[in-house]
């Protein structure tokens, strides 16, 4: 057999030209401004340019008078002696007065630290001088739990870009010395500045940093965040992303986004379709973004309008009770064969406990509609280790998947096309700002046993493809979500290149002391916010009002 060799990686200059040459902007900006921002995503170009929040903040900065924003990304191959540079002008990061990071996943903390080191920006914020940039972190992780990154970041942006970018731009234009600029940033709503407010926001008003975000009433006037630059070099190749809503009405007790982003902010169908029509000459592919896309009350008019414009439409995971024959018909007409839903648990009892309002009967009927509409690949997002889970719940997960598999096969045989079920099983990770924030990660040995049991059961089922979360990743992610200032040495080791399995092996006791704290869980109040525990947590100073 002839083995094909993969092409060698392109030199930085060649890769830069290739990426820039393939990009198409949905909005052009005026003349370059004097005040410059380097905006980075702590992961690859391919992943960063698939992130709508990152693209939208890039647009917002470039709309500001006399401000120019350039992008940079994490290069897993390393940036060599030159250090990381911006894509637009190939400028070193240290040359910018403001270096802003968008961090959406805790797993990217390591990339953030490596970028600082490669850029020769002092990692310790206290060692920076007027010759160094101000380092700012935004994105989901900034408002989940900023404390572990306070030794490295000068400021954190907590809230929506439209609310925060104008104030940041104003400080840039003031051209202040470093200390004065940080003082000014510390006066802005939604900005957390450790050197001004203290590591736990002790000197902030009432000891709290208030998130600056949209309210429900502002939805009708909000411009729909949408892709700024289209490119084939992403996982979402040339797809126009449009946010249709922020927040979720489902309020599952494990979901950070539902509680941190509440109340839900919905954008009118007319505004969404106006953006799509304007961008239609650039692409025929569109993706709708929301925590629960089909939760939008005008989802059918939106889908019909996009279809009439000639778009191929992609949806993220669909809320189960929002599935209808009409919705499925619109997607099926364009040849879509894959769909994803999130039952999360295998029976009604456990779904009720996590506030997932889906009955077994409804789930089975919705899957029947999906199969009947011609979809042949259905992904199920599921969890093990949920609070209050029993062995019977794990068995019921197997039974549920088998029942849904039989529904898919029964409907598929009628059409001569058998479907595939893909149960994707993650470990429950306790997240800050949720009613389950005081819960603990399941015992790792128990997690491994349950995942092995599921793997063995699903392997016996035809037309089922199982995907399970590695236990080491669950331990690491649970630690990253809840860690505090004690994390410094471990993060430094990770940034130096230690793989997750090594970190878990060498620091298992420390990681589990955070992921599985010894505090007793009051099962009678399970799923209810505990004010005292919240105030004592590393993220206790983050407030929504």
Features:
alpha/beta, six-stranded mixed β-sheet, 545 residues, 15% strand, single chain
What does this structure look like?
With 545 residues, this protein is an alpha/beta fold. Among the domains are: 19-216, no CATH class; 341-354 and 377-540, no CATH class. The protein has 21 helices and 19 strands. The protein has helices at 12-22, 45-48, 52-63, 109-118, 140-144, 161-174, 178-185, 194-197, 256-260, 269-279, 299-308, 325-333, 348-353, 360-372, 391-415, 444-459, 471-482, 488-495, 500-506, 508-515, 531-536; strands spanning 24-25, 35-41, 67-73, 98-102, 134-138, 155-157, 191-192, 209-210, 229-230, 239-243, 245-246, 265-266, 285-289, 312-315, 338-344, 377-384, 420-427, 467-468, 542-543. Strand 5, helix 5 and strand 6 (155-157) form a beta-alpha-beta unit. Helix 4 crosses helix 18.
Helix-strand blueprint:
Elements: H1 12-22, E1 24-25, E2 35-41, H2 45-48, H3 52-63, E3 67-73, E4 98-102, H4 109-118, E5 134-138, H5 140-144, E6 155-157, H6 161-174, H7 178-185, E7 191-192, H8 194-197, E8 209-210, E9 229-230, E10 239-243, E11 245-246, H9 256-260, E12 265-266, H10 269-279, E13 285-289, H11 299-308, E14 312-315, H12 325-333, E15 338-344, H13 348-353, H14 360-372, E16 377-384, H15 391-415, E17 420-427, H16 444-459, E18 467-468, H17 471-482, H18 488-495, H19 500-506, H20 508-515, H21 531-536, E19 542-543
Parallel strand pairs: 2-3, 2-4, 4-5, 5-6, 8-19, 10-13, 13-14, 15-16, 16-17, 17-18
Antiparallel strand pairs: 1-9, 6-7, 11-12
Helix pairs in contact: 3-6, 4-18, 10-11, 11-12, 14-15, 15-16, 17-19, 17-20
